[in-house]
From TrEMBL:
Coiled coil spans: 222-256
Gene Ontology molecular function terms on file: sterol binding
Lineage, broadest ranks: Eukaryota, Metazoa, Chordata, Craniata, Vertebrata
Sequence segments annotated as region (Disordered): 109-144, 262-285, 636-705
GO BP terms, alphabetized: lipid transport
The name this protein goes by in its record: Oxysterol-binding protein
Keyword Ribonucleoprotein: no
InterPro entries registered for this protein in UniProt: OSBP_sf (IPR037239), Oxysterol-bd (IPR000648), Oxysterol-bd_CS (IPR018494), PH-like_dom_sf (IPR011993), PH_domain (IPR001849)
Subcellular location: Membrane
Organism listed in the record: Sparus aurata
GN (gene name): OSBP
Protein's membrane topology: Peripheral membrane protein
Length: 751
């Protein structure tokens, strides 16, 4: 399928860009690529969207040769391994490119030659003007800096003269004293002082000569330095202008894409009418480089018929009827900053090379890889956007309620986009309470109920009519280049109004570039949010990042259906920014053929409405582990919490305070203490088994495979979940009552 032809690019300043066909190999032949000529460099990308992150190749024109083969073909080579065989769509376009390339090559060669000479032709009083706005102010700043440097050089020259003058006077005075021919001790002292003065004069003369040489070099090269500084200023301005143009172009393309999607038939007509050579190549290119992880969208949304807008315009959704309660104000002012993250170096490969293929929870890691909160606190961060559940509890329709619950399931990932640090693995029996009842109407409790495999149970209850509970076991593998984190377990949300009971699971988190490059995080997989009371269902799809996808990064799409499979709402957005939902008025089969020849479902929807948007990060978050406002308060010390609370964990506290060496030592102490406690439980369990079985039963294989320890959680009890049938830990009560009494009897000594 062809695309609308892009306008022929026209040179703008020092930048020239457009589509050119590039020879790839004998199988694929010429493939269309997006070329950008800027600042003497010719770079190319598979698509315009790649310009922000993936450059496929760059050639420096200053040392390159440009030759023309025929009416449309031309070759660019730097004499080494880089040679581009290119073909324009017509002779006129080829000539435009040749002209732009020759001009850029001449300018690049001239700038390189000028950077190598002494810069005598440069006049400080008339520096080159930077292109674009702000050039005058930048030149003024440059001249001010140069005047300051010149003044300091003159001061140094004056100091040299003074040292020489006073040194000569001192030498003359000492010579006069020596001529008095004093005898005895006085004469010895005079000779000693004279010798020291002579040594000082020799040293001073050496320093004066060095300063004189420096002054001569500074004066000889000052113009060259001035010119180099101005060139850097000019280049920065050009880069800023290029970025601005790219941003505008990106917005234009995005609007054009959305317009094409909303006017499908018209766009198809225009595409078929335009020249198809380049566009067909680009389409074939996508088929050849199709990412195995990437899948075509399962459905298409188009605007509903205006009659639906007119008839239903007066029916506001629940999100407009109710807003989160503002009547409760915080009684405690919570902190907004923590100590900045220290910049400690660490040889990552020396630690990671022995960990490949191992379970992450079993690898002894220094705190350099951590962030100063535990997994229990990270689990409590799921409540960052609790107001979505507050709104859901007020919905009259279970289908609208499903939209808010689905958005809540997505919102928990928004805090992970920059969070590459690993939370502390909780110790067995460690707890964490988050009491926000007075501020936000809820309070939550987490407890580490198992160590191998690591499992945490979480229970939150709100005065606004909802309960959230989950037990999460994290399975993770280090694969050499990336780290896969697979949360196992089911999340439950129960609403008092209507007794609706929802469940869903979490998707896979992948941390890329573990060894080399900048760490970045992606979420991928599918979620089914199910209302077990009504049978409603929302299928959410987290699209994995792909170099070859033209779609927006971190995209999430979903459809809310009733028990009969009828679609009522469509959700779309990104897991790191926002989610919107649109009401479905009609649906039909017959969009473009999807994978394996299946037809996509086309949904006619009303105008999309925003259901969730990520809160902005606090100022200076990049130096505070990219914590959100809530995360900054999670480890804040509080009175009255249990002795097993994560806030009391010493290694985590030391890390937050920036004392990482002490934190590593304390972490090893705590882990060894936990191992000793586990071995003791295993001995007790073995002793109990020995005392309760007879000799004949020792041959029973089922008894030999019994658990090695008999640990029981303190605040949660293990039972079968009546909804999922899983063996889970459910809150049995007692914690908040113990806190009210100020007595936590029975809490283990884990710290």
């Amino acid at each position: 399928m062809s695309e609308p032809k892009t306008p022929t690019p026209v040179p703008a300043g020092d930048t020239y860009k457009g589509w050119v066909f590039k020879w790839t190999n004998y199988i694929k032949g010429y493939q269309r690529r997006w070329f950008v000529l800027s600042n003497g460099l010719l770079s190319y990308y598979r698509t315009q969207a790649e310009m922000g992150h993936t450059c496929r190749g760059t050639i420096n024109l200053a040392t390159a040769t440009i030759t023309v083969d025929d009416a449309c073909n031309f070759v660019i080579s730097n004499g080494g391994a880089q040679t581009y065989h290119l073909k324009a769509s017509c002779e006129v376009e080829r000539q435009r490119w040749i002209t732009a390339l020759e001009l850029a090559k001449a300018k690049a060669a001239r700038m390189q030659a000028e950077s190598d000479d002494s810069g005598d032709d440069f006049s400080p009083s008339s520096p080159p003007q930077a292109p674009g706005q702000g050039g005058g102010s930048q030149n003024t700043e440059v001249q001010s800096a140069l005047r300051t440097l010149g003044s300091k050089v003159e001061d140094l020259s004056t100091c040299n003269d003074l040292i020489s003058k006073h040194g000569s006077a001192l030498q003359r005075s000492l010579s006069e004293l020596d001529s008095l021919r004093l005898t005895g001790e006085a004469g010895d002292k005079i000779r000693q002082v004279t010798e020291r003065a002579t040594l000082f004069r020799i040293t001073s003369n050496a320093m004066i000569n060095a300063c004189r040489d420096f002054l001569a070099l500074a004066q000889a090269h000052s113009k060259r330095w001035q010119k180099a500084l101005q060139a850097e200023r000019d280049q920065r301005v050009r880069l800023e202008e290029t970025l601005e143009q790219l941003a505008k172009q990106h917005n234009h393309l995005e609007r054009a894409f959305r317009g094409a999607a909303q006017a499908n038939a018209t766009a198809d007509n225009k595409s078929s009418a335009g020249p198809g050579k380049g566009e067909a190549s680009d389409e074939d290119d996508d088929n050849e480089f199709f990412d195995a992880m990437e899948e075509a969208p399962e459905f298409i949304t188009v605007p509903a018929d205006p009659q639906f807008h007119k008839s239903l315009n007066e029916e506001p959704l629940a999100m407009n009827q109710e807003s989160p309660s503002q009547e409760l104000v915080p009684l405690k002012k919570r902190r907004t900053r923590i100590a900045d993250k220290p910049n400690y170096s660490l040889n990552l490969w020396s630690i990671m090379k022995n960990c490949i293929g191992k379970e992450l929870s079993k690898i002894p890691m220094p705190v350099n890889f951590n962030e100063p909160i535990s997994m229990l606190q990270r689990l409590s961060e799921d409540l960052e956007y609790h107001e979505l559940l507050d709104k859901a509890s007020k919905c009259q329709s279970s289908l609208e309620q499903m939209c808010y619950v689905a958005a809540f399931s997505v919102s928990s990932y928004s805090t992970t986009v920059h969070r590459t640090g690993k939370p502390f693995n909780p110790l067995l029996g460690e707890t964490y309470e988050l009491d926000r009842r007075r501020e936000s109407g809820y309070r939550s409790l987490c407890e580490q109920v198992s160590h191998h495999p690591p499992a945490a149970a979480h229970h939150a209850i709100s005065d606004r009519g909802w309960t959230l509970r989950q037990e999460i076991t994290v399975a993770s593998k280090f694969r050499g280049k990336y780290l896969s984190i697979m949360p196992l377990g089911t999340i439950h949300a129960i609403f008092e109004k209507g007794n609706n009971h929802y469940t869903w699971k979490k998707v896979t988190t992948t941390v890329h570039n573990i060894i080399v490059g900048k760490l970045w995080i992606d979420q991928s997989g599918e979620i089914d949010v199910v209302n077990h009371t009504t049978g409603d269902r929302c299928h959410l799809k987290f699209a994995p990042y792909s170099y070859f996808s033209r779609d927006v990064a971190r995209k999430v799409t979903g459809v809310v259906m009733d028990k009969d499979g009828k679609a009522h709402y469509v959700l779309s957005g990104t897991w790191d920014e926002k989610m919107e939902f649109s009401r479905v008025m009609q649906s039909s089969r017959g969009g473009e053929n999807g994978t394996e020849g299946k037809q996509k479902t086309v949904y006619q929807t009303l105008k999309a409405r925003e259901v969730w948007r990520r809160n902005p990060l606090p100022e200076g978050a990049e130096s505070m582990y990219y914590f959100t406002d809530l995360a900054l308060t999670l480890n804040e010390p509080e009175e009255g919490v249990a002795p097993t609370d994560s806030r009391r964990r010493p290694d985590q506290r030391l890390m937050e305070d920036g004392r990482w060496d002490e934190a590593n030592s304390e972490k090893q102490r705590l882990e060894e203490k936990q191992r000793i406690a586990r071995r003791e439980r295993e001995r007790e369990a073995a002793s109990q088994r020995t005392s309760t079985v007879d000799e004949d039963s020792l041959t029973d294989p089922s008894l030999k495979s019994a658990p090695h320890e008999n640990y029981q959680a303190l605040w949660f009890e293990r039972c079968e979940d009546r909804i999922t049938g899983e063996q889970v830990h459910i809150y049995k009560g007692g914690y908040w009552e113990a806190k009210d009494r100020g007595s936590f009897e029975g809490c283990p000594d884990i710290f």
